[in-house]
Known about the structure:
Blueprint: E1 3-5, H1 15-21, E2 30-32, H2 40-46, H3 51-63, H4 69-80, E3 91-95, E4 98-102, H5 112-130, E5 134-139, H6 143-152, E6 158-165, H7 171-178, E7 185-190, H8 194-206, H9 208-214, E8 216-217, H10 224-240, H11 243-247, E9 250-255, H12 260-271, E10 278-282, H13 287-294, E11 296-297, H14 318-325, H15 330-343, E12 346-347, H16 350-359, E13 360-364, H17 367-380, H18 387-399, E14 405-410, H19 418-421, H20 432-437, E15 445-447, H21 451-461
Parallel strand pairs: 4-14, 5-6, 5-8, 6-7, 7-15, 9-10, 9-14, 10-13
Antiparallel strand pairs: 1-2, 3-4, 11-12
Helix pairs in contact: 3-4, 3-10, 4-5, 5-6, 5-10, 6-7, 10-12, 17-18
Residues 110, 112, 143, 221, 255-261, 309-310, 388, 411-412 line the site of pyridoxal-5'-phosphate.
Protein name: Threonine synthase
Cofactor: pyridoxal 5'-phosphate
EC number: 4.2.3.1
Amino acid sequence: MEYISTRGQVAPIGFIDAILMGLANDGGLLVPKYIPQLSADTLQSWSKLSYSELALEIFSLYVNNEIPRDELKKLVDDSYATFRDEAVTPVKRLTEGTYVLELFHGPTFAFKDIALQFLGNLYGYVSRKTNSIIHILGATSGDTGASAIEGVRGKEGIRICILHPHGKVSQVQELQMTTVNDANVLNLSVEGTFDDCQRIIKELFADVEFKHRYHLRAINSINIARILAQTVYYFYAYFQLPQEAQAAKVNFSVPTGNFGDIFAGYLAQKMGLPINKLILATNENNILERFVKEGVYQPGEFRGTYSPSMDIQVASNFERYLFYLYGEDAAAVTAIMAQFKAEGRVVIPADKLAAVQADFAAYGVQNEECLDTISDYHAQVGYLLDPHTACGVAAADKLASAGEVTVALSTAHPAKFDESIRLRGIAQTYPEQIQALFEKPQFQKVVGGSNEAIKDELVTFF
Ligand SMILES: *Cc1c(COP(=O)(O)O)cnc(C)c1O
């Protein structure tokens, strides 16, 4: 498989080069040159596979022989052996017609582990094959940093530095990052906001001399390996549904921020998985809800919510979807993105909006409604939803029609967002792995929010 850019100005490259490039050199996003099409027989033959076996089949389609199959198998097996549940991503029945797909059984209790455990092992593989050190630099508002650190901690040939805004991530998120005591991990707690952290990262990546001296690599969700890893659980969840549920129209409801997770569902559908509707759940930062309902893509005012990992105004993966909406026409995507940059807004024509609405439905969940959903399901079903998952479940309740089956993606364990859940008087017992974090020493350095201050730290660390 080769990879091309949504803006058409990158010569086709292989899988490993695509992973290393991250953001495409022309400013676009990398996508596979074609989407593999699965026959009904193939789907049938996959339906009894374990999670890792299924992941190997799907990755094989996108990696081709660039990584020999036995080595790819080892990377996949190692990535999912760290999950606490034997099924890796189990499906639980919530109510008649509604299921939750639990994606939080990895090391940091959030769904990002599914992609970042694999990406960490891939970077380890590339480092061994090329005999070079991989330097990873990233910024986080919470979940990504912890997941990325867990994905590479202790791995030879990799060094990772993660910036987080000082005092502005949840307590559990901070502990998950900063209690890691491996020599290849550096946590910088930056005096500033998440936006400051992201700006510094962007500018350091744009500093060509600095970037090349250290071969800086990214871990953010525009990396195509993350999308591919996330397509696996759509297939796996579908196969886990009881026969009579599979016979109905099956929707997936996805708590959405950067559009990475739901784009993986779109890709699974394009490959041939019979998904009825992809339900796009947002919180009060609802730019994508407005896009699906009205065809207008325009950032609004930032709102802090109970689901902070979805507090995003400009969805970094959205361009990938535009590429397919416009029939893989890179010139059209380039024009739209230029217009967006110039005017801060894009409006799509009626025929395109009809195409969007054939695949997606959307619902934006208000803050109180999110907490209501948590308390209702806790009281009536005895299941504790985290605030992100609650957005997905609330959207499913709103939008699924009678007789349909909806799988709501559960993107985090409720223990990660106890501060919000406690607002409704619900007490929870932390899993022992999270409880243990409170006893551990923390390793982080508080630094000022200037590029020079960060550079000084990196030069010493790398
Ligand atoms: C990252 C994240 C999301 C949003 O996923 P995207 O791929 O950015 O749309 C939702 N929930 C949780 C808990 C997350 O960490």
